[in-house]
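Thread: Newbie trying to understand structure tokens

Hi all, I'm a second-year student working on a class project, and my supervisor (Dr. K.) asked me to get a predicted structure for one chain before our next meeting. I've only ever worked with sequences, so writing a 3D structure as a token string is new to me. If someone could post the tokens and maybe explain what I'm looking at, I'd be very grateful. Here's the chain:
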Amino acid sequence: MQRQHSPFKLDRLLELYRIIPCFVHGIINLMALSLLILAAGMGSRYERLKQIDPVGPNNEVIMEYSIYDALRHGFDEVIFVLRREFEEVFREKVLQRLNGHMHIGLVLQDLNDLPPGFSAPDDRNKPWGTGHAIWCARHVLKKSFVAINADDFYGEDAFRNASLFFSQPGLEHTAFMMSGFQLASTLSDHGPVSRAVCTVNWLGMLQRVEEHLCIENRPDGIISLAEGFVAKRFNGEEVVSLNFWGLTPCLMPLLEESFCSFLSKHSNAIREEFYISRAISEMLFHSKITVSVLPTSSRWYGITYKEDRLLMARAIANSVRRGDYPATLWK
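---
Reply by user tm_fold:
Sure, no problem. This is what the structure looks like when written as tokens:
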């Protein structure tokens, strides 16, 4: 079902909707940053709730290391986007350790939290995706923020870069950033992964993002599969997004426009997802935003399959031995 509005009123409303978040953001631009953690996905290939699977020496979960890195680079708030059915166990396993260290907010990603005029299909139970997860936090994000996945380890340098980026004087409110990682170093030895492959110009500005849902490292090279056929081959040096986005509240009206377009095409969708990378790519195509791609010296680790967890735990243990992190994060 699509929305119907008077064109005259809609134009005025949209113009106000674009201006107000940017005006408010301009006033508080010098404040500390928010960290938005997308933790609503279950991870079907992992077979359990990987966001709260311990990887640290004292049962810390992956996102706690991101929060720790954010804290030491000027972030003063963390907002979690969760599904309602995960809230109780999340509070028990994670939130109780974070109390008193920074301001904490919770947002529930509800399938029925949609723009006016749209409704979710009765038989859909899968979250709408990362773009919708960020949009669900539109009412609580009042300043520049970094949006990340709960189940990825990005490293301190990525947060340092984000903090430096947003500290630039005179930065446009629609000037965003992304941490860029090399494709070859983000693959799993245990099966295919989804990756957003980026086109970046010589100035380091993002041009477009292309989602590949089945990238695999095989003896004959890195390939992307589509319906059983090799759709594309990669050399491994390509820049990929792992959903480390530096954004501002000015994103929200643009994101809603993109989400409405998605819903108009997939109004009865049961499994299709609204990816933030695709929304960003669409905004870039229409020259509504700019995105600086900042390469990072941090080593990324992620968990797609349950076998990936051991590699992650070893990496964390090595970081603790080097002194990058304390053995107990929260004292």
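A couple of things are worth pointing out once you decode it. The domain at 7-322 is CATH 3.90.550.10 (Spore Coat Polysaccharide Biosynthesis Protein SpsA; Chain A). Residues 201 and 295 are 13 Å apart (CA to CA). Feel free to ask follow-ups in this thread.
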